[in-house]
Amino acid sequence: MKSKATWWLLAAVVVIGAGGCGSAVKPRIAVLLPDMCNTPDGMVLGPDGFIYLSCPNFNDPSYAPRIVRLSPDGQLIDVGELPGHPETGKAGPLGLDFGPDGHLYIADNQSLWGFNNHKSRLLRIRMNQGRPEGVEVLVTGFIQANAVACHEDSVYVTETSLDLSADPMPSGVYRFRLSEFQGEPIDLTRTAAGHLVVKFYTDNPDWRIGANGLGFDEQGNMYVCNFGEASLLRFGFGPDGNVVSHEVVARGQGMESTDGLKVHPRTGAVYVADYVGNAVHKVNPRTGQVTTLWKNENNSGGIGGLLDRPSEVCLRGNWIYVANIDLPGQGNEYDAPHTLSVLPLR
After folding, report:
1. How far apart are CA 338 and CA 325, in angstroms?
2. Nearest to 158 by CA among 168, 147, 150, 149
3. C-alpha torsion sign, points 122, 55, 19, 13
4. What is the value of pTM for the model shown?
């Protein structure tokens, strides 16, 4: 991590402008990313009003994985590179969130580099007034660490697979108290049972991808995407911190997969990126009704802001930002441009 003040301005083109909020409003390009950000994924709105974006650069690994941030006026600023795993030499930053301590927590997913043998990690970038001051390894032993959400005194991380050989495939969510991050990293190969708060299954031979997007509403309910089941799950917690309710809020209804999510802090509406369907959906948490805000064909190339394998959404002001991860395979080709798209919030 480059902690000195070398946050240089990256090439960015912001085209957010006036637009209606009626049905099927075409997305626009929020920012045209440089090649050093060729695989945009996780996003979070920081306390400073910047959107922080993870770029694992799976598509073109000649560029180091890094974190960048998008200012309210559209400038893209480098936060810095992430150091590689000591054994694999790689880093795969996906989901990220700010904790109540002001530091940035990041899932380092090693599986897309081909390392599924418990090499994935939870990292923390220590932040000081928006500036990084080093990276810490907090948890080791994940198989496929994915989304991160900080809630109250804990950090939650989705584990996209708990057993790659099982059918149906189990996945779930781990919880770590901030007070646990003392001394040596937590090793999940020894303490997984004590940290796993929910477990569920995915039965889809075409998309063996389980727990993905993650977030909390104002009432403390936890929402989790089950990617392969194209479903949105909700879990309620009791006073003792244990899960007391589990329900499927929505499944299908035009959703072909459920990848990243964000919960609107005021309305409670859940916004979901649909990687397989090249779409963004809005889920009513009370009725389970799904509204498709935009959908386009595969292999759009991201031209003009069209969605190109969207993996994450982020809410800022009256806009929905969408990260187009553009991974190759299953009918998609990786190509330029590399973009964040934007849609009007509704």
Report:
1. 8
2. 147
3. positive
4. 0.93
For 190, phi then psi, to 5°, come to -115, -25
Query: Within 10 A of 4 (CB to CB), how many other CB atoms are there?
Result: 8
How high is the pLDDT of residue 23? 52
Within 8 A by CB and 6+ apart from 307, the residues are 27, 278, 279, 280, 294, 295, 296, 300, 322, 324, 341
**Half-sphere exposure at residue 56, Cβ-oriented, CA atoms within 13 angstroms:** 29
CA distances from 52 to 26, 280, 308, 311, 341 (A): 24, 20, 20, 15, 15
Sign of CA dihedral 234, 96, 227, 119: negative
Taking alpha carbons only, the member of 247, 241, 110, 103 closest to residue 176 is 241
Neighbours of 34 (CB within 10 A): 17
209 Cβ neighbours under 8 A, 6+ residues apart: 160, 161, 202, 227, 228, 257
Partners of residue 170 on adjacent β-strands: 201
Q: Which one-letter amino acid corresponds to residue 188?
A: L
Stretches where the chain sits below pLDDT 70 are 1-23
Minimal CA–CA distance to 295: which of 308, 285, 304?
A: 308
In the beta sheet, which residues pair with residue 77? 9, 69
Distance in angstroms (rounded) separating the CA atoms of residues 200 and 221: 17
pLDDT digits (tens, 9 = 90+) for 160-179: 999 999 999 999 999 999 99
Q: What is the pLDDT of residue 226?
A: 99
Strand-strand pairing, 222-226 and 270-274: unpaired
Residue 210, burial from CB neighbour count under 10 angstroms (0-12, 13-18, 19+): buried
Report the 10 Å Cβ neighbour count for 64: 16
Angle 73-75-79 from CA coordinates, rounded to 5°: 130
**Residue 238, burial from CB neighbour count under 10 angstroms (0-12, 13-18, 19+):** exposed
Give the residues across from 247 on adjacent strands: 234
Eight-state DSSP code of residue 296: -
Of 102, 104, 17, 26, give the one whose Cα is nearest residue 66: 104
Residue 131 and residue 41: Cα distance in Å, rounded?
A: 21
